[in-house]
Write a structure and sequence with these properties.
The complex is a heterotrimer of chains A (164), B (793) and C (291).
Chain A lengths: L4 E7 L2 E7 L5 H8 L18 E4 L2 E4 L12 E3 L12 H8 L9 H14 L5 H8 L10 H16 L6
Parallel strand pairs in A: 1-5
Antiparallel strand pairs in A: 1-2, 3-4, 3-5
Chain B lengths: L22 H5 L15 E7 L5 E7 L1 H4 L6 E3 L7 E2 L9 E2 L4 E2 L5 E2 L5 E7 L2 H8 L3 E6 L6 H4 L15 E9 L2 H7 L2 E8 L3 E2 L7 E6 L5 E5 L4 H12 L6 E4 L16 H12 L3 E4 L2 H7 L2 E2 L2 E9 L5 E13 L10 H8 L10 E9 L13 H18 L4 H8 L8 E2 L5 E2 L4 H11 L2 H6 L9 E13 L3 H6 L8 E7 L5 E5 L8 H13 L6 E4 L17 H28 L6 E4 L2 E4 L2 E7 H10 L15 E6 L4 E13 L6 E11 L6 H21 L29 E5 L22 H12 L16 H9 L8
Chain C lengths: L6 E4 L3 H11 L3 E4 L5 H6 L7 E4 L9 E4 L2 E5 L4 H6 L1 H6 L1 H8 L4 H4 L4 H7 L5 H8 L3 E5 L4 E5 H4 E3 L2 E2 L6 E8 L5 E8 L9 E9 L5 E9 L6 E2 L1 H7 L6 H8 L16 H26 L1
Parallel strand pairs in C: 1-3, 2-3
Antiparallel strand pairs in C: 4-5, 5-10, 6-7, 6-10, 8-9, 11-12, 12-13, 13-14
Helix pairs in contact in C: 7-8, 10-11, 11-12
The chains are: A alpha+beta (164), B alpha+beta (793), C alpha+beta (291).
């Protein structure tokens, strides 16, 4: 038996202290130790992108990260996006443009796109496709997701929230 | 019965691109998929699976595993001997039942077959214990290619059968020999479509718990909760009314989750046995190894033409690669039988004969996946047509126009006895040609300035939709499929639709509510659709095979009409008016021509339940506002066309898709945005099959690419935008004039892709027409070099 | 698909990591970004008994502008290297290659050193280290050494790194002034491992003749390979499409490809030649623009 290790990290603004087996993947830690099940697991080898979360603001695969590697880090998951049930502009753009069908890939896509739009507030469709290429979706054919991201960028610009 | 609503294009609720009610929960990460459901004390299951494709189990060594301190249980076939076979009542040919044990007994038949189930506190530990299990195998010859497995001297994969072929049929209509003898041109090809997987982003998963009151609750990532409930009851001997099956949020299915898999029986059985909640969530490796594969067919296709492109005859031999079992419940026939029965497609084919052969191999079983049968069957037909067009100096479009069933010929019964209800194929094709700039592109040079070759391809499909009994029968399966919906109005006038369908991405909670709101005359927001839970729905077959808009929508129309009529009868009494003079609009009931004489639906509903003085006498009108109605409509056939523009790098074989145009006629649309979503998603999967996806087994039966590293599905850069357009010819046969839409998008886009490749290579000696899927860089270079093409055996 | 158990050690510095490696020896593995290792562990294809995590050492990302090139600390993430202004200015081919590695979510965690040590023959950074004459600074608890990239890659996923050694930094040498570069690869989708790739650097002398040539292929053998025969055919010659076509034929001297589920060995050989012509053409036009 391997000894458990202590871990302290911040998820969506809340600090958690837990004891875990070192092999616990960050994806499983978030989902099953913290019960934040919005982060999904689709392949566990880093390809599908469903488990993408933000670690210190950067999108990473939580399935290719041991929870212990997130010691002291600030994690953001899909549950951080809305405000008491009010959708964020990014979420709303996905709703308006039907940028989802079964929705399994959606949390990972939202987290990737949140970071992407911060980095590139006025992307063109090709840049959006490139940025989406690390998140697989089997339902939509991506077109309506691209529309959603375009709409989210436009909404951010028109409301003046886009960073220059 | 009189049609309750006349829908012509857009009404208040039908034809409206409404936002989906299911989306906010998903977008906030609150929607619950199987692995998100938590019950205290849940144990997790991991399976020990076969690493051999065909072998006898000589000795299963469990001692080390059982000695693991956290091993709760290990179950094998010794404890659990149940198994199942397909439950189709019959087919045109002779079907020899293939028994599928839920846990392997004595022998294994494909890599990934379940041998033992380990129960432990966590999946991590369960996998540790699985690692401790060992087995001595006696290996047997493994078959990868159907044409090897069907040889008379091949080793039997199932010893209780006389051959690895377990189904064969043949069919003929017209004088095929004469047509071929007199034709100007006969083109015969062998076509090999690759083996793929629906690969939904959520893998499969099952959780089960046995209650203190001897009830069983099962959560499964399934497309068909009610048939699963019946199957669990029948196969495990548990009274059906004590079982509740819940399909929570499900992350895509595409037909693959419309099967019953061994785990869906093993988990409930374990829960009953150990009286604790148990969960198994399939990982991606397991998914690619052992969730139904699809679309692998070996097809010999011959078509006879006159010089002007008229098709005078067709001969087909379709050999279905069933894999190791006949996937429960649809059977391994589903691909090839559906393909052959739908072989004429959009065309008048006066003389046709086909043979269907279904053969076992040592691979995962094949089953339903979006566009089942037709993806492969249409590809074979159209690639031969493309080759013929080139040999006849015609464009494939000329052959389409020449052979299309005309608008004025509907209803039209094909030479394979399918009755097409409606359509205007010429109009759809012309729309697609126009939107895609097909003719002008064809006139341009193929070569680009940077050494690439441009190509444009077109394709056309007819899709048999709304699988009810008759649709199934017309495809060669005399199955019984239908659906039931209960529509209930409560005393506050709000409406609950209890459906036996199950939305797993299609947006049925939205679209069925649109249908109910329209039929009843209530606001959309007043309708809630309950699906996916046998405790709250109505017995139905589930959602697959482009059936839910038509059969689900139709049964909603019927049940809602009954409730509306009851409501009007009661309102007429209350309002002292004639029921025939009353209208309902957005929750308000009023006398025609006198809008001031009105009451709300909520007021009438309240009176119905709570005011015995105001409502009619209950001997006259029962004070209920609910109705349960069944629907099993005739088949409705959608149609559509795809065009694809590519740029090919002729030195690397890499092709880039530059444009996709999709035109579809699915009759009246309930929610055009949802239809567009289906068209785009289907196009993506069709191009995945056409360009990328192939599950590759080696000679010994090992799956070489059981990961998303090497089994490739389209990403956002694989495809460009997908331009959609609609032609609407309502079905005269179905409630609402709906035809299905779900699978359509996958039926011809891969054909358009391959036609675009053939077009890009049109200046090469040939004609060079691909006869395989997918057309990856290797296959493109093989085509250019004219090597490794499918060889007839 | 869950990893097997291991004991976990968090190193605070690379020196500390060397100490931990000395203590745990052959059964220990360094965990940096983990983007290849954890995937392999999830599949239980890798089962290290001890993991020494260097992903949270102090100042993991350091990029230094040195006289003969750019030194990148091994733990620097690929994303930081990709966007680094010094890398983009002095080693544009490396910046371009970094963009080809998987997807940005992977590059946010994957490290430059990790990719090199993983030594996948189809991946970009091992090829870049050959192309740019990289020197690897390698350290153990008792020793320090510098190893040339050409001595480092042994075979498929295997390097000269000993089990007690850690890759500390990589010095990528800047190519000659006025040189140009080309990088071409064929992958099935954006972000996938290359089926085949070719990278080239060319510099021209005052007379317009090729004065420097470097050609590296990846995905065509058990390690990335330098195509010296191609380089020799270029040196001292006037560059032209015809010369490139002729020279690129010599890639067959170094191609020792295998077939996989995607393409055959033959495809890899043929396309390596095609891509080499293209990489050389791009390198030439950049070199001409730089002159």
């Amino acid at each position: 038996m391997v000894d458990k290790k202590k871990i302290s990290l911040n998820v969506n603004g809340v600090t958690y202290d837990r004891e875990i087996e070192p092999r616990t993947l960050l994806s499983d830690f978030i989902r099953h130790h913290l019960d934040l099940t919005g982060t999904h697991v689709g392949c566990e080898h880093g390809i599908c992108g469903s488990c993408t979360i933000l670690m210190d603001g950067l999108p990473v695969r939580s399935c290719l990260t041991f929870a212990l590697q997130a010691e002291g880090k600030a994690i953001e998951t899909v549950e951080s996006l809305d405000t008491n049930g009010e959708l964020s502009p990014l979420q709303n753009a996905f709703w308006e443009n039907q940028g989802l069908q079964c929705g399994f890939c959606t949390p990972g896509i939202l987290m990737s796109m949140k970071a992407f739009l911060k980095h590139n507030p006025k992307p063109n469709r090709d840049e959006i496709r490139e940025a989406l290429s690390g998140n697989l979706c089997r339902c939509t054919g991506y077109h309506d997701i691209v529309d959603s991201v375009v709409a989210a960028a436009e909404a951010a610009i028109s409301s003046g929230t886009a960073k220059a | 019965m009189k049609k309750p609503i006349e829908i012509a294009g857009v009404t208040k609720h039908i034809g409206v691109p409404r936002k989906r009610t299911e989306d906010p929960q998903i977008l906030m990460g609150q929607a619950k998929y199987v692995d998100d459901i938590k019950l205290p004390g849940t144990l997790e299951v991991a399976f020990f699976r076969s690493t051999h494709a065909h072998a006898r189990i000589k000795n299963l060594k469990l001692d080390a595993a059982k000695a693991h301190p956290d091993c709760h249980h290990i179950f094998t076939n010794n404890e659990f001997s149940a198994g199942a076979t397909t439950f189709f009542p019959g087919t045109r040919g002779t079907l020899h039942p293939v028994l599928m044990p839920f846990l392997a007994k004595d022998k294994v038949r494909f890599v990934g077959e379940i041998i033992a189930a380990v129960v432990a506190p966590s999946r991590y530990i369960a996998e540790d214990i699985v690692d401790l299990i060992e087995v001595d195998y006696e290996t047997l010859p493994a078959y990868n290619d159907v044409e090897d497995a069907m040889q008379p001297d091949a080793a039997l994969i199932h010893e209780d059968l006389e051959s690895n072929i377990y189904y064969a049929d043949s069919f003929s209509n017209g004088d095929v020999d004469k047509a071929f003898a007199e034709a100007d041109l006969v083109v015969s090809e062998k076509i090999a479509t690759g083996r793929t997987s629906a690969a939904p982003m959520e893998t499969r998963g099952v959780m089960a718990t046995w209650g203190w009151d001897d009830t069983l609750t099962v959560w499964s990532s399934t497309q068909m909760p009610y048939p699963l409930r019946t199957s669990i009851a029948v196969n495990l001997g548990i009274p059906e009314q004590t079982i509740r099956v819940v399909a929570p949020t499900v992350g895509g299915g595409f037909g693959q989750k419309a099967h019953f898999f061994p785990d869906e029986f093993i988990l409930p059985w374990i829960a009953k046995e150990i009286k604790k909640p148990v969960k198994w969530v399939e990982d991606r490796r397991e998914h690619l190894l052992s969730a139904a594969h699809a679309k692998q067919c070996t097809i010999y296709m011959s078509i006879a033409f006159n010089k002007d492109g008229t098709m005078v005859g067709m001969k087909i031999k379709n050999i279905g690669d069933s894999g190791a079992y006949s996937q429960y419940p649809w059977s391994g026939l589903i691909e090839s039988v559906a393909a052959n029965n739908g072989a004429p497609g959009a065309f008048t084919v006066p003389n046709i004969s086909f043979e269907t052969v279904i053969c076992l191999t040592n691979k995962m079983s094949t089953g339903a996946y979006r566009g089942v049968g037709w993806s492969a069957g249409c590809y074979a037909r159209e690639m031969v047509m493309t080759k013929a067009a080139r040999l006849l100096n015609l464009d494939i479009v000329d052959i389409y126009r020449k052979n299309f069933i005309r608008h004025d010929e509907f209803p039209y019964t094909t030479s394979t006895n399918q009755t097409y209800d409606s359509g205007d194929y010429h109009k759809v094709l012309e729309k697609c040609l126009e939107l895609s700039d097909y003719a002008s592109t064809k006139k341009q040079s193929r070569a680009t300035e940077d050494g690439k070759l441009k190509g444009v391809g077109i394709a056309f499909f007819v899709e048999q939709t709304n699988w009810g009994s008759r649709s199934a029968e017309e495809s060669g399966f005399p199955a019984t499929l239908h659906d039931t919906t209960t529509v209930e109005m409560d005393p506050t006038g709000k409406v609950t639709v209890r459906s036996g369908q199950f939305s797993h991405g299609q947006g049925l909670k939205t679209t069925l509510a649109q249908v109910a709101a329209e039929t009843l005359g209530v606001p959309f927001e007043d309708v809630v659709v309950l699906d996916g839970d046998t405790a709250t729905g109505a017995y139905g077959m589930g959602t697959f095979a482009s059936r839910s808009a038509v059969i689900g929508g139709g049964s909603v129309i019927r049940a809602a009409t009954d409730v509306r009529n009851k409501l009007l009868t009661i309102a007429a009494h209350v309002m002292e008016a004639n029921a025939a003079d009353l209208e309902i609009d957005e929750g308000k009931i009023y006398v025609k021509g006198s809008p001031d004489r009105s009451m709300t639906v909520a007021e009438i509903a309240y009176i119905t339940f709570y005011d015995r003085f105001a409502r009619p006498d209950e001997d006259e009108v029962e004070p209920t506002l609910s109705a349960t109605r069944h629907y099993d409509p005739p088949a409705a056939y959608a149609n559509g066309s795809h065009a694809v523009h590519i740029e090919l790098d002729p030195l690397t074989g890499k092709l880039d898709i530059k444009r996709i145009v999709a035109v579809e006629d699915c009759g009246n649309m309930i929610n055009p945005k949802v239809v567009d979503g289906q068209m785009r998603g289907g196009a993506s999967q069709g191009l995945g099959m056409g360009l990328l996806e192939s599950l590759e087994y080696d000679e010994s039966g090992q799956l070489k690419n059981a990961s998303f590293m090497d089994f490739l599905i389209p990403n956002a850069t694989t495809l460009p935008d997908i331009e959609c357009a609609h032609i609407v010819t309502p079905s005269p046969y179905t409630e609402g004039g709906f035809k299905g839409a779900g699978e359509a998008a996958m039926l011809s886009v891969h054909i358009a892709l391959s036609n675009a490749l053939a077009d890009a290579l049109s200046e090469y000696d040939g004609p060079l027409v691909p006869m395989v899927t997918p057309i990856g860089p290797q296959q493109v270079m093989d085509l250019i070099n004219n090597v490794n093409q499918p060889q007839a055996r | 698909m869950k990893p097997a158990n291991f004991e976990y050690f968090r190193a605070t510095s690379l020196d500390h990591a060397c100490e931990l490696l000395r203590a745990h020896g052959d059964d220990a593995k360094i965990l940096a970004g983990g983007q290849s290792l954890i995937a392999a562990m999830n599949y239980r294809l890798a089962r290290p008994q001890f993991l020494i995590d260097i992903s949270n050492i102090d100042s993991p990302s350091e990029i230094t502008d040195e006289s003969d090139g750019v030194r990148i600390k091994a733990t620097t993430t690929q994303a930081i290297a990709e966007h680094d202004p010094v890398v983009r200015r002095r080693l544009p081919v490396l910046a371009n290659a970094l963009e080809h590695i998987a997807h940005f979510q992977i590059r946010n965690k994957g490290t430059v050193g990790g990719s090199i040590v993983n030594a996948d023959p189809a991946s970009e950074l091992p090829a870049m280290s050959l192309l740019l004459d990289a020197e690897f600074e390698i350290q153990s608890a008792s020793d320090k050494q510098v190893m040339a990239a050409e001595d480092f890659f042994i075979t498929y996923m295997t390097t000269a790194l000993q089990s007690d050694e850690v890759l500390i930094s990589i010095l990528f040498k800047a190519p000659p002034e006025n040189s140009g570069w080309g990088l071409h690869e064929v992958a099935r989708r954006a972000g996938d491992f290359a089926l085949v790739g070719s990278a080239a650097i060319i510099a021209l002398d005052d007379g317009g003749k090729c004065s420097f040539a470097r050609v590296v292929l990846f995905g065509v053998a058990s390690t990335p390979v330098r195509a010296t025969e191609v380089e020799d055919a270029l040196l001292g010659q006037s560059c032209s499409d015809a010369l490139f076509a002729e020279a690129a034929k010599k890639v067959s001297e170094v191609v020792d490809a295998e077939s996989d589920v995607h393409v055959t060995d033959e495809y890899r050989g043929n396309v390596a030649e095609v891509l080499t012509v293209r990489a050389l053409a791009d390198a030439l036009s950049r070199a001409q623009a730089a002159s």
